[in-house]
Specification:
Protein name: Sugar ABC transporter ATP-binding protein
Keywords: ATP-binding, Cell membrane, Membrane, Nucleotide-binding, Transmembrane, Transmembrane helix, Transport
Domain ABC transmembrane type-1: 74-266
CATH superfamily of the largest domain: MetI-like
Number of strands: 0
Order of helices and strands: HHHHHHHHHHHHHHH
Oligomer: single chain
Family: Belongs to the binding-protein-dependent transport system permease family.
Strand content: under 5%
Helix content: over 70%
Distance between the termini: 40 Å
Number of domains: 2
GO biological process, one term: transmembrane transport
Number of helices: 15
CATH class of the largest domain: Mainly Alpha
Radius of gyration: 24 Å
Shape: globular
Structural class: mainly alpha
Length: 280
């Protein structure tokens, strides 16, 4: 018994040490990013590089707002990200509910056709989509970045469809007996029970919109409409003889805050959503 207990303790200690080492290795780039954001431009060029700044340059966080229209870009990304989440949740939840609750003739065929759109690479639809939005006079507006979210996403529809399929039919039968319409059952029965799945979709949609660089580059030409990824990419452009890496790290730290905050708030729901949508 003692040998077995000592063996279990040794395994636990080894697992803990491996976890600590792995955590350290994963946090090392984050630490280096924060450390670099607080260094002076001169210190960035020193070799070998220092892990901690010799003098903490907190003014870098103020300088980035003076060097670049960073505040406006940050607000643009937030507006686009929030509206994208709203559109994705509404359209994907509605379509996912329809695929989960209606099993008529040909429903599986339509579902497979919907899933097949995930195999289309974005470059295949990029030019026709650009021509469409240009004819609608949406170029250099936020509409091409927001409106497509209100037409659903195949992956998110699939994710929510899997979750809605796990809800018991008795709940919806009781709703029909009480005279509820399908839309009311979706709104008052399905959605309140789908918090974990909706949180998962919201996080995925916000992260995709927040990190998207290609779409804003295609459709936005005015500097006051640029998003955060577009602004950050300009740091490595030819207008800088030596890229201001310290400001780029400042922008990276500030750009990371909404994602970390969102995940910290919805972490429990996010994990539940991944688990529950994968069980069935």
């Amino acid at each position: 018994m003692n040998k077995r207990r000592r063996k279990i303790d040794a395994v636990s200690i080894a697992s803990f040490i491996a976890l600590v080492v792995t955590t350290f290795l994963m946090l090392l780039p984050l630490f280096f990013m924060v450390s670099t954001s607080l260094k002076s431009k001169k210190e960035l060029l020193t070799f070998p590089p220092t892990f901690l700044p010799e003098s903490w340059q907190w003014s870098n966080y103020r300088e980035i707002f003076d060097t670049l229209n960073f505040g406006q870009m940050y607000m643009n990304s937030l507006i686009i990200g929030i509206l994208t989440v709203v559109g994705t949740l509404f359209s994907s939840a509605l379509a996912g509910y329809g695929f989960a609750r209606y099993r008529g003739k040909g429903s599986n065929l339509w579902f497979m056709l919907m899933l097949s759109t995930m195999m289309l690479p974005y470059p295949a639809i990029m030019i026709p989509q650009f021509i469409l939005f240009s004819k609608l006079n949406w170029i250099d507006t936020f509409l091409p970045l927001i409106v497509p979210a209100f037409f659903g996403s195949a992956y998110n529809i699939f994710l929510l469809r899997q979750f809605f399929s796990t809800l018991p039919d008795e709940l919806f039968d009781a709703g029909r007996i009480d005279g509820c319409s399908e839309f009311r059952m979706w709104r008052q029965i399905a959605l309140p029970l789908s918090g974990p799945a909706l949180a998962t979709v919201a996080i995925f949609a916000f992260i995709y919109s927040w990190n998207d660089l290609l779409t804003p580059v295609l459709y936005l030409s005015s500097s006051d409409k640029f998003t955060l990824p577009v602004g950050m990419s300009s740091f490595t452009s030819s207008r800088f003889r030596i890229p201001p890496w310290h400001l780029l790290m400042v922008a990276s730290v500030l750009a990371m805050l909404p994602i970390v905050t969102l995940f910290a708030i919805a972490q429990k729901r996010f994990v539940e959503g991944i688990v529950l949508t994968g069980i069935k």
